[in-house]
Every structure is written in C-alpha cells, then in structure tokens.
Backbone:
C-alpha cells in the first residue's frame, strides 16, 4: 500500500469510527481536527505549507458542500490525497487537482517559500511549472 493509500484508509477509519461510535455525531466538524492531523503527519513537507493547503482544500471543497454531515466525501478525500501526493513529490492522482487548484497551490508555495528547504522547494516548483501554475 502506498503512503497515499494508507492516508485514504486512515481517513475512512476516522469517518467510520466517528459515525458509528460518537453519539450525536454531527458531521465534518466532529472529525476535522483528526483528518487535518493525519494529513499533516503524512507529509514529508515541513513548516506551514501542509496546513495552508489543507485549509485551501477545506474551504474550497468541504465547506462548499450542501451537507457537512457526509463530508469529506470520497471525491473530496481523493482531492486531498492528491494534494498530499504533491507535497510528498509523488504524481499519484494528480489528475484530480484542477487548474484552479494548481494556481492556488502555487500561490501558497510562493508564500511559504522562504521557510522551505531549497531541495523541497525546487521539487515543488518543478511540478507547479509543469502543471501551468505560473
């Protein structure tokens, strides 16, 4: 199983556990911190970039849903996993990331650039240029 596959499996476990074992489960807000922690721990990218990308994903995909009870949906979880793959220098599922996503991710990388190690920044920038983010 890839790191991305493990991340997706862990997210499903969090969702299942919370929905089955939490009396009064009200949806995404009950599991958001756990999922964010999973995302941030699963990346090899240091500093604030993973948190910024998570917040972008959350605001763009989860909070625009008509019903937070069923979030994150499989489709939205897939997008988050693709963003995780990007941070981990993997091209796994990158076709799930839209042009608008790439542009925003590029903006976030630029914002965090001075705090990133040069080798990681170079890897991220190469992908962003190839995806037309700049």
Residues:
């Amino acid at each position: 199983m890839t790191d991305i596959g493990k991340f997706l499996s862990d997210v499903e476990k969090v969702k299942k556990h919370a929905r089955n074992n939490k009396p009064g489960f009200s949806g995404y807000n009950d599991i958001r911190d756990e999922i964010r922690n999973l995302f941030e721990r699963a990346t090899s990218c240091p500093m604030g970039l993973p948190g910024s990308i998570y917040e972008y994903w959350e605001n763009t995909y989860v909070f625009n849903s008509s019903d937070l009870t069923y979030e994150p949906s499989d489709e939205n979880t897939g997008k988050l996993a693709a963003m995780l793959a990007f941070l981990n220098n993997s091209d796994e599922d990158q076709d799930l990331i839209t042009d608008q996503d790439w542009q925003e991710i590029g903006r976030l990388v630029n914002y965090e650039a001075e705090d990133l190690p040069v080798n990681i920044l170079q890897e991220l920038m190469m992908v962003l240029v190839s995806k037309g983010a700049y």
Remarks:
- The chain has a mean pLDDT of 92.
- Helices lie at 3-21, 28-42, 49-62, 74-87, 99-112, 118-130.
